[in-house]
Amino acid sequence: MLVRPKPGILDPQGQAVESSLRHLGFDVADARVGRLVEVQVATDDAAEARAQVERMCEQLLTNPLIETYSIELERV
Amino acid sequence: MTDLPPPLVTVVVFPGSNDDRDAELALRRLGAESVRVWHTDEALPRETAAVVLPGGFSYGDYLRCGAIARFSPIMRAVEAFAAGGGYVLGICNGFQILTEAGLLPGALRPNASLSFVCRDVPLVVERADTPFTSRCEPGRELTIPVKHGDGCWFADDELLAHLERTRQIGLRYAPGGNPNGAVADVAGVLNENGNVFGLMPHPEHAVDPLLGSADGALLLGSLVDAARLSLAAAV
């Protein structure tokens, strides 16, 4: 799961990273810092895995007021 | 009113809470009985007349502050207590837990400065007609310390406008005194029914002039008064 601060929300961590990148000479317009959560779920069914991970995001891993999420599935 | 036993204010202790003893001490000093209960308890003591969720760093502030503590077994009892009109006060981490639990509106984000702030801040009482502020007058200025890294209260424009309309902003940082970048200088918010309140400043650290301010006693004392009145009403 990729958890991102919603657009328009003050992201001081992103601002600090952007400022550091500029000091290093990188011409960046905007930096946002989110969170990567990796979990293994015990199912072969991609739709079932996605449904489980969505429930995890909604119940615990994100706060819908301030964050959005996207899901990537990978077979291991 | 003095014939009644002191009201019981229950302080919930989560793994990582660290202001629970100060809260208990302050409440006792203000005339309440107070006990601390562990977060794995499934019920509040039966005589509970108010609940305090104290400051600290529950679950190491992992994921988001308060996000994990809200699933502690005791929180179902706290939610039921609040739903029945019981008074619930969240201080700092307790405020974060109440927003994560959906008992209070908004969310608490990292301070705009990214620095931990630990100092006295000037506050203005917006609502004096609540169980948490009744010892104050509207517009009363208070000096109470904050100590947090994630105290930047956030609500989007629509939610903020709604909360202003419904008068759920109970406490603000005085102009120029906002320590964390909170939207609209919000330091404390109420739920819709006015029986749940959360704030970032620590009233339990300001109950004696020796501590630099006794203004926190006005807030905790209001809660003790309200708890006492609820006992009297139940008799």
Could you please describe the fold and organization of this structure?
- The complex is a heterodimer of chains A (76) and B (235).
- With 76 residues, chain A is of the alpha+beta class.
- Chain A has a single domain, classed as Mth169, Chain: A (2-Layer Sandwich), CATH 3.30.1280.10.
- Chain A contains two helices and three strands; from the N terminus they run E-H-E-H-E.
- Chain A has a three-stranded antiparallel β-sheet, with no helix packed on it.
- The longest helix of chain A is centred in the last third of the chain and has 16 residues.
- The radius of gyration of chain A is 16 Å and the shape is elongated.
- The mean pLDDT of chain A is 95.
- By secondary structure, chain B is an alpha/beta fold.
- Chain B has one domain: Class I glutamine amidotransferase (GATase) domain (Rossmann fold), CATH 3.40.50.880.
- Chain B has five helices and eleven strands, in the order βαββαβαββββαβββα.
- In chain B, the strands form two sheets. A nine-stranded mixed β-sheet of chain B has the order 2-1-3-4-11-10-9-6-7, sandwiched between helices. In chain B, strands 5-8 form a two-stranded antiparallel ribbon.
- In chain B, a hairpin with a 5-residue loop joins strand 10 and strand 11.
- Chain B starts with 7 loop residues before the first strand and ends with a helix.
- The model of chain B has no long low-confidence stretch (mean pLDDT 96).
- At the A-B interface, helix 1 of A face loops of B.
Provide a brief overview of the structure.
The complex is a heterodimer of chains A (76) and B (235). Chain A is an alpha+beta fold and 76 residues long. In chain A, 37% of the residues lie in helices and 13% in strands.
